Amino acid sequence: MGKAFIEIVIPILAVGGKMLPVHCIVELLDTPPGKDGGDAKKREEVEKRKEGYAIVPSTLQLRDLVRVALSKLDYPPERAKNATGVIQVRNWKALPFASITDNQQSSVGQLFGDLLSHITLKISVLSSDASSANCQNQTPEDQIRSSRVGGNANGSFLSLGNLGNSFFLRRGLDLPFGMMARRMKGGEGKGVGRTAHPVQELRIKLLQVLEKRGPTLLVSHGCPFSQVTVAQILQGKYNKPVSIEKIQAFYQWYNIYNGLTDNTLLPPDRVDSSALPRISSKHWRRPRTLFNPRTELPRLLRWYRQNPRPTRAEMEVYLAELNASDFRRNGTPLQYSSIMIWFKNARVKYRHLLRSTAIAQMREDMVYAKNSKDLVIDESMKDSSDEGESDMVVEEKEMEEQEEEGEEEQEEEQEEEEKTELLEASSSKSPVRSSAKSPSRSPGRSPARMLHLKVEPITEGEDSVGNENQVASVATSVAKPTILPSLLHMHARPHLQPVSIVSNGLIVPSRLHNGSHQAETALHVPDLRKIASGFGISLTPELAAAAHAMPIPGFTHHHFLQALDSVHHKESPSIRLDYHNSALSVPKPTPSPLTTPSASQRRTPTPQSYKHQSESPKPEKSPQSNSSQTSTSPATRVPRKRFTIDPTFEVPKLQSWFAIDPRPDRQTIERYVQELNSSEWRRHQPKYNNRVVYVWFKNARAKYSKMQVSSSDRDPDMERRHHELMRMHQEAQMS
DNA sequence: GCAGCTCTTATAGAAAGCAT
DNA sequence: ATGCTTTCTATAAGAGCTGC
């Protein structure tokens, strides 16, 4: 088996007794560098580099290659004593001989054959003085390497020195290479005795691949051992017998994974040769996956909503489905790990979202409790459950505990999630869990979900510019979904509170609303578009405007989900805009798999609710003036505040204008500015000015001219990206 | 002085990596 | 699996220059 392994890893080519030219680079380090190591000029002189071809017999054994090559290049034999060699294929990372083959007796012809024209033999020759002196400037890993290469002219050291895990390195270095191969070949005994060394071999192999990918990725990249087993092998703690089948499976995987091209995750015809030089380096990094925001992200989101924790099999199905699209067939196919990572990041993203909001909510609640004796839990909620504590009560308790015992937050959350799952499981039996939350809910329907709107206090004199964080915080008060998994399924926190509209059009929890002067206790405005854009979803202009039109009485999570569905399914949104009184008119919720909001959730706004909206906005500084004026001290550099252009609503608008005329005149720009600022959402956002629009057009021109240049360069990859961008651009225009 | 250009820098957000 | 960090990409904005 060991032999078979070698034959698979290194293509054995029938090269007869020919002479082969080996491209060599010899570096001489004759004298030690100065102690300070800073005399670059001197060092330049001592590092003599020689390049040439050594004509060697194809039958020359690898272990003799360095010695023979030096001899052919007219170096005295004693040089070979402290010479080490590595093989570099093209400009990839150089590999020591031991990483190429276990069998140092393999011939050069067998090993390299037709690849020879792509190969460089790099030889480092140290004088004995230099080698000892060099150690002073070497990294510990280099020292380990050097300590093992002294006097070894065949260069067969284990270059695992640049592994991140030097701990493993030291262990691995002591292991006999090829032992397993010999044993397996010789058919030595079975059982434990037979597997002890194979495990060590596995460890070395794992260490080799760890050089290319992080340990946690091995398993997800198909390594047949579990993560725990891998960890145990690496740490030398695995002493169980390993079946032959398992070892075979591992080597099958390893041979592919550790192949020269290391593009195992891509089909051969999709290998990007330009990326090859980076492989096999510990700095290798997976190319960033760009999901198509129009075709792929909505799908992923939909799947996430169905199940935030799909099994591997499910993800494989998703992968196949996504890769079947034209977008992927014409481009780089997705990898399994990309899907996996997306789900992982999505879970993290929404957990953070919920947590940050919950904490902000909790703090503000506490502030309010301090300032008011009026903190009462909504009675309608208190009696909402005939099954014990309402979700809200449970949640509130939990929130308090979190405040007191921050370190226990994770356990609490875990418990909550488990509770959630239990509740969800049981909810089918008892659909009505909190009647007061959704009194109008149809029997069997899922409990109410309500978007809990938070509004940042807008105080007089506060510069609204830079208050983009107003939209950063999103709270979703979600009763546990029963039928349709929630957008925030896994992280739903049933912090259910009815909202009230107070002056300035802000929304506050009704329990905080005393009728008039609670605006200052109002919380953050959540931007539904933020949720969508967080997933890269482009809402239709109507829907985006609807989302902007927050605060919206009665606009619930249900509506948002419904709206998202409509986006995904290309239906017309079920939300229509009615700017009468600057309010969004949400159609009376129709019976749906979800629910209708409770009466308390759908309070009608007070007359002053829209006063703020109807008022002319405060004079606001332009983003530029803001960024340039906020600096009170010249020494203190104020971070540039990036003006945010809404990607779902405003960018398509700009793009469509750009398509009409990429160089609008001043009047046109002013018109665009007015139009952009007239949107409902912009009322509470930093306003456009001519400069912003002008800069956008400027950058757009630069972008598209750059794309044209790239396209003319006939770089296939760039061309493809250009086409993708153009297609997306066209889609944006059409939408 | 203004507009436009190219190049550069800074920022936000997301994908990937890694330790636990 | 999770939480946190790092790295990367896209792009808004700035700097410096040129031409009119």
TrEMBL record:
Q: Name one GO biological process term.
A: regulation of transcription by RNA polymerase II
Enumerate the InterPro entries for this protein.
HD, Homeodomain-like_sf, SATB1/SATB2, SATB_CUTL_sf, SATB_ULD_sf, ULD
Biased composition range(s): Polar residues: 599-611
Q: Which domain of life is it from?
A: Eukaryota
**Where do the Homeobox domain residues begin and end?**
283-353, 637-707
In what ranges is there compositional bias, type Acidic residues? Answer: 386-419
Pfam families referenced in this protein's UniProt entry, alphabetically: ULD
Q: For this UniProt record, give its keywords in alphabetical order, as a comma-separated list.
A: DNA-binding, Homeobox, Nucleus, Repeat, Ubl conjugation
Tell me the DNA-binding residue spans. Answer: 285-354, 639-708
Subcellular location, record wording: Nucleus
Q: Where do the CMP domain residues begin and end?
A: 17-127
Q: State where composition is biased (Low complexity).
A: 423-449, 622-634
Q: Which SMART domains match?
A: HOX
Q: Which residues form a coiled coil?
A: none
Gene Ontology terms for molecular function: DNA-binding transcription factor activity, RNA polymerase II-specific; RNA polymerase II cis-regulatory region sequence-specific DNA binding
Task: Locate the region Disordered.
Answer: 378-450, 582-644
Q: Which GO terms describe its cellular component?
A: nucleus
Bias category Basic and acidic residues: which stretches? 612-621
This chain's protein is named Uncharacterized protein
Q: Which organism is it from?
A: Strongylocentrotus purpuratus
